[in-house]
Write a structure and sequence with these properties.
By secondary structure, this protein is mainly α. Helix content is 78%, strand content 0%. It has 19 helices and no strands.
């Protein structure tokens, strides 16, 4: 994040940025090792014996916070069709409920990590969890689509304060031989959060506890969040603040405005009849994002600490790798969105079954992730290409199964979905390490932060773009054809990701 002659960002901030790119896959080792190699002298060790004894309790607290963040990403997906009916939300508003959360998180997560450096991880963690809890309550009480969108934006922003402190705390408390075990626990919990999110979303919507319906998927965060806040207040040690960390608030604001200008029209363009102002807004968004790069150069020239390491923009292998990341994640959350909409909307599958059908996919994803890292060490990017191919095959089988089904059945989709999940696991776990392979250790934190931000932006863009394809085709033809069109868009995106992976490999070997 710095030009030559600037102060290096603190190790806590670098680890936070590094782990940002792993929040979706649990691939800890490549990032963590690269950061530590470049900053070995800056390790922290908890020497206080009281802190050393209670650190496993603190681990449970911070991992619980990470868990509710991971569950929230999928639990809302299952409830989306019910939300749309009860709030009379338009298709654009449905997409925005998911996309705006990701945009808010992506633009603030690096700043959230630096706030932990400036004011201490404990303070920012408490603020983040409390904010996430209160905004979850706001989501649960929302009375309209626009209000829920605003609440989800606030929820994403508070998550960006909470999540970076989780890895920073683990780094500080486990600087000894227990570190692999601690990160192993973190990875397992992270991997299971998807399966729990799908299942819990279906259960809560179906049970309709106290007449809450879909609101329960947000209310569930409130008691859990309050328990985490109380436990953290009593047990979590305050890490020392670090000098030399600076915020790039203008950069975060400009990035947010640019992404909103670019993705917003994709969300609401259809509702506006694709009027000329929609395209002008998108063009303005592109211009603002281009201005963001110029702003970052100015921040660096003034000895500031920009959100991105500008030197990495000249690394062809890394930039092509980010292209692969973008197109891979473009087809990630958007795939789950259209599948949920199709199952519950066209096939009228109850939320509980629609949630449970994804559980085998999530477990297969975890299984593939566990061994894909080892395979990647022997086969390199070939494993990533194989994963893309498996996903494409899974999409093809899903398309056939949905088109040829005599009678709608969620269980008909289980095996094809497991194939998709296995392909995702083959790619997602080793992808970060492959993309960062050419990044110098001193820039590992910034590189990983750019990786994670790119992934979340792509998820938001995919929900907007591929969701727009689904709704547009559905309005002109049928839900079955709309699903095939969305699958085709996902397939094009995955193919583009594979092409960028090949280009990345050529650049790295040049």
């Amino acid at each position: 994040m710095q030009q030559s002659g600037q102060k290096r960002p603190s190790i806590t901030s670098q680890v936070i940025d590094a782990m940002t790119g792993i929040c979706d896959n649990g691939d800890v080792a490549p990032h963590f090792g690269r950061v530590i190699q470049g900053n070995a002298a800056m390790h922290q060790m908890v020497s206080n014996p009281v802190e050393s004894r209670r650190r496993w309790w603190v681990l449970a607290i911070v991992v619980a916070a990470q868990f509710i963040f991971g569950v929230d990403a999928f639990i809302v997906n299952v409830a989306i069709p019910t939300i749309a009916v009860e709030l009379r939300a338009s298709p654009a508003q449905i997409q925005a409920v998911i996309a705006i959360y990701l945009i808010g998180y992506a633009t603030l997560v690096v700043t959230g990590g630096r706030l932990g450096d400036l004011y201490g991880t404990r303070s920012i963690f408490l603020a983040g969890v409390l904010g996430f809890t209160l905004t979850s309550l706001w989501c649960a009480l929302a009375q309209s689509g626009p209000e829920l969108i605003g609440a989800r934006l606030a929820q994403g922003l508070t998550a960006a304060l909470m999540v970076p402190q989780v890895l920073a705390t683990i780094h500080v408390l486990f600087a000894d031989a227990s570190r692999p075990r601690a990160f192993g626990i973190y990875g397992i919990v992270l991997g299971l959060s998807g399966a729990v999110g799908f299942m819990l979303g279906g259960v809560l919507v179906t049970l309709d506890l106290a007449g809450l319906g879909w609101r329960a998927v947000f209310f569930v965060n409130v008691p859990i969040g309050l328990v985490i806040v109380a436990a953290a207040w009593l047990s979590m040690p305050q890490a020392p603040r670090r000098a030399g960390t600076r915020l790039d608030i203008p950069g975060a604001i400009v990035l947010f405005i640019g992404l909103l200008g670019l993705i917003g029209p994709l969300l609401f363009g259809r509702d506006a009849g694709w009027a000329p102002w929609v395209w002008l807004t998108m063009a303005a968004g592109i211009a603002v994002i281009a201005g963001f790069v110029r702003l970052e150069r100015r921040v660096a020239a003034n000895s500031g600490m920009p959100l991105i390491d500008l030197h990495l923009l000249a690394d062809r292998a890394f930039m092509r790798g980010l292209g692969a990341v973008f197109f891979f994640f473009l087809a990630n959350l958007s795939f789950y969105l259209v599948m949920t909409l199709f199952m519950q909307g066209a096939w009228h599958i109850p939320p509980l079954q629609a949630g449970l059908v994804f559980v085998p996919l999530a477990l297969t994803f975890v299984m593939a992730s566990r061994h894909s890292g080892e395979r990647a060490r022997h086969r390199g990017t070939l494993v990533l290409l194989e994963g893309c191919a498996v996903q494409l095959a899974g999409l093809g089988v899903l398309a056939l199964a949905s088109a040829m089904a005599v009678s709608p059945s969620a269980w008909l989709l289980v095996l094809p979905l497991m194939l998709v999940g296995y392909g995702q696991g083959l790619v997602m776990a080793p992808l970060s390490g492959a993309v960062l392979s050419t990044v110098p250790p001193a820039s590992a934190g910034s590189g990983s932060g750019m990786y994670g931000t790119t992934a979340q932006i792509a998820n938001a863009a995919g929900v907007a773009a591929i969701g727009a394809v689904y709704f547009a085709v559905q309005s002109m033809a049928s839900a079955e054809i709309a699903l095939l069109a969305a699958f085709a868009a996902c397939a094009v995106s995955l193919t583009a990701s594979a092409v960028f992976l090949v280009w990345m490999r050529r650049a790295a070997n040049a």
